[in-house]
Design goal:
single chain; about 750 residues; alpha/beta; Spore Coat Polysaccharide Biosynthesis Protein SpsA, Chain A; 2 domains; 7-stranded mixed sheet; 26 helices; elongated; transmembrane; golgi apparatus
């Protein structure tokens, strides 16, 4: 009997154990199906349509097999089944609360193990439009945001719509940049930050970002009312993956969740950084707002604008000001409303400030998604892997933005009017034309980044101010400091550079005591593209971005005499340039010596001219270019005198800002200034030589373009063709008055 009882108990135990295993297996299977995963198939195959069909068939068959034999056992083991169906105590955190869906439990697991063996299937439709918002104010932030945009464009496979909340400076810079960048399937909208300042100006903020650091709170009001979702990014972000992956996380939000954020990776909100450290209230470690998923539609529905205001008003009664701008208010709001936040895996915002836990967010390079340089030290931050992060950032910083003008195949998009116009112009060109490359260059649209460095200008009250206008490339960079020492007035410089060279220039300017202390110099980058130097296009960029009534059209390898700025302002008044059409000629000289004791007066210059230390400009190479200045008369002149236009005359002149632009068909070497002076004459400008002004050309190696001109017959032939076409255009534009230019050309 005892033997039979033992055998009976053993059978019951085996049956009970089998039932527990089967029920636990079924429970886990059902849970994984809810999460879109399968225990029956290899995890990397589980998301294909065929796999789902096969999985369903196998599952149904297996369930039918076990259903009958376990029906009785389930009744006996209901308590055991209930226990098996509950997750162990302590596994639920606030981020996976009763209001949190199963996908959020998955997110919590992802944070602990930020590496997966399987590529994730895309959760965003092929041509779905992704919206990205940034607050951007000032020259430096406008420069930083370009690197962010490059990193997004590099990885993206979807159309993008950027929404920029900007001040006047950033609007001017970025609107010009994107208009000239012409990236397909990229839309850009701008919103005036000044109109939003009243929404947040009442909040005291100690953070270096100032009032603009609070602007993200206003996005439900600032952005279009029909925009339902947006990714919000700081300008110091670098993407290491396709932004569509981040956009896809919106689909994981529960019905109640409205904000997606990554946990703050420093101890700031724990309040233990120093004695008496009192941060704003936050949930646990708090959240970082460098990367935010905003469900705008839901935020508007719950009354976000009123809610954050009430939160800020309540906390400011004791905190008095914010320390981390909008981040403090977001965290205080979430502390009161934890069910509204969706916690993102921390690799979506790897925060590289000092003393963070960012190293816990990745185990391999492939784990990295978004890098956030949220320390004031930026690239100098301390981190074990900072060299890797820095190199990734520098890759995009110096990456050729022209390469990002690629089409998104299979995604139809409406071309901008500029793109349509450019395409039509290209189709009109004849590729068999021997001058095709010249004509192609004329219609090439170059990316332009205005005011690359900090720029400040205060207009003079007498409307006589003059800006020195010039263009240069990397090989003339050494002239900038000397020019700034000789000319104290405003300067507008257009620099023809690659993305990498622009960063070299930035480092050069920031290291120069002379340049970094001059705020009235506007540096405008025209990015390289094509085989020619588009010299007149570059000049026009500098000319069009002048803020004074008058311009001094110079070249960067000339040094103006000391005091020329003040002298020109007086001459503007003396010659009544405000009411007359005049071009004031500044006589040009040159030296062949790299070291020159610069003359401090006209008398000293004449002495050096007589001694052979100085020469009239190009007298031994191209006399015709400046002969009409009449240097013999200038030697003794004490008042301005008028000279007549002659063929090939190309003086350096002071004119009103509304003068004609340079003709952009002339690229490289030859006729780029000659054609401009010709048009000034056609518009009946009087050429007036200033008796007490001069400038001196400093020696330098020959440019690449002049070498091509001298060595290539086809180059010279095309230049001759362009001259003839320019004459014809001049005749059509100015009629019989322009015939003298054609006659003068034929008499050469």
């Amino acid at each position: 009997i005892m033997h039979l009882l033992c055998r009976g108990r053993m059978k019951l135990l085996v049956a009970s154990f089998t039932a527990i295993v089967l029920l636990t297996w079924l429970y886990l299977l059902a849970g994984n199906l809810e999460n879109g995963r399968s225990l029956l198939l290899a995890p990397c195959l589980a998301d294909t349509p065929a796999a789902h069909v096969l999985e369903r068939t196998v599952l149904e068959s297996r369930v039918r097999e076990v259903e009958e034999e376990n029906r009785q056992i389930r009744l006996q083991l209901s308590q055991t089944q209930g226990t098996a169906a509950q997750p162990p105590d302590g596994n639920q955190q606030w981020g996976a609360s009763a209001d949190t869906g199963p996908e959020d439990v998955e997110n919590t697991a992802e944070e602990k193990n930020n590496h997966t063996e399987c590529p994730r299937s895309p959760t965003v439709q092929k041509c779905e439009l992704i919206h990205v918002a940034c607050v951007c104010a000032g020259h430096n932030a406008s420069r930083d945001v370009v690197t962010l945009v490059k990193s997004i464009l590099f990885h993206r496979r979807n159309p993008l719509h950027f929404h920029f909340i900007t001040d006047t400076v950033a609007n001017r810079i970025l609107s010009s940049l994107f208009q000239s960048w012409m990236v397909p399937s990229v839309h850009v909208s701008f919103y005036d930050a000044d109109e939003l300042k009243s929404e947040v100006s009442w909040i005291p903020n100690k953070h270096y970002s100032g009032i603009y650091g609070l602007m993200k709170l206003t996005l439900t009001k600032a952005l279009p009312s029909d925009l339902s979702k947006v990714i919000v990014l700081d300008t110091d972000i670098t993407f290491a993956t396709d932004i569509a992956e981040l956009w896809g996380i919106f689909r994981k939000f529960t019905d109640k969740q409205v904000i997606g954020l990554v946990e703050n990776q420093s101890d700031w909100y724990l309040g233990n950084l120093w004695k008496n450290h009192k941060p704003w209230p936050a949930l646990g470690r708090g959240f970082n707002t460098g990367v935010i998923l905003l469900y705008l539609e839901r935020l508007r529905r719950i009354g976000w604008e009123q809610m954050w205001r009430l939160t800020a008003e309540r906390e400011l009664m004791s905190m008095l000001s914010t320390s981390l701008a909008d981040q403090d208010i977001f965290n205080a709001f979430i502390k009161q409303n934890p069910v509204l936040v969706h916690q993102l895996p921390c690799f979506w915002n790897v925060q590289l400030s000092d003393h963070t836990r960012s190293e816990q967010c990745y185990t391999e390079v492939s784990d990295l998604k978004v890098i956030h340089w949220n320390s004031p030290k930026k690239l100098r931050v301390k981190n074990k892997h900072v060299e890797f992060f820095r190199n990734l950032y520098l890759t995009f910083l110096e990456y050729d933005g022209n390469l990002l003008r690629r089409e998104l195949f299979g995604c139809p998009t409406q071309a901008s009017p500029e793109s349509v116009q450019l395409q039509a112009a290209l189709e009109e060109l004849d590729e068999d034309d021997q001058c095709y490359d010249f004509r192609r260059e004329r219609i090439t649209v170059h990316r332009v980044h205005l005011y690359f460095l900090q720029y400040e200008y205060t207009p003079t009250g007498d409307d006589t101010d003059v800006t020195l206008v010039a263009q240069l490339s990397m090989d003339r960079l050494q002239m900038l400091e000397a020019i700034c020492k000789h000319w104290e007035g405003p300067i507008s410089l257009a620099l023809y550079m690659s993305d990498a060279e622009a960063q070299q220039f930035l480092r050069y300017a920031q290291a120069s005591e002379v340049l970094k202390n001059r705020k009235n110099v506007g540096y405008h980058i025209v990015y390289k593209e094509g085989q020619f130097y588009p010299v007149n296009l570059v000049r026009n960029v500098a000319l069009k971005n002048v803020n004074t009534p008058y311009v001094f059209l110079a070249d960067v390898d000339f040094l103006p005499m000391y005091g020329l700025y003040d002298y020109l302002r007086k001459s503007v008044v003396q010659l009544d340039m405000a009411h007359t059409k005049k071009a004031l000629v500044v006589p040009a000289f040159e030296t062949l010596r790299y070291r020159l004791s610069f003359p401090k007066s006209k008398a000293e210059l004449l002495s050096m001219l007589d001694m052979g230390t100085l020469y009239t400009f190009r007298y031994h190479v191209w006399t015709k270019g400046h002969a009409p200045t009449n240097y013999a008369k200038w030697r003794t002149a004490t008042t301005p005198y008028k000279v007549e236009w002659e063929s090939d005359f190309e003086p350096y002149v002071v004119v009103r800002r509304d003068c004609p632009e340079y003709d952009q068909r002339f690229v490289g070497f030859g006729w780029n200034k000659v054609s401009h002076i010709m048009e000034l004459d056609a518009q009946e400008y009087d050429l007036m030589v200033l008796p007490n002004a001069f400038m001196i050309h400093m020696p330098h190696a020959p440019s690449f373009d002049i070498s091509k001109f001298r060595s290539s017959p086809s180059y010279r032939n095309c230049l001759s063709t362009l001259k003839d076409e320019f004459h014809q255009d001049l005749s059509r534009k100015y009629g019989s008055a322009a015939l003298k230019y054609l006659t003068a050309q034929r008499n050469i």
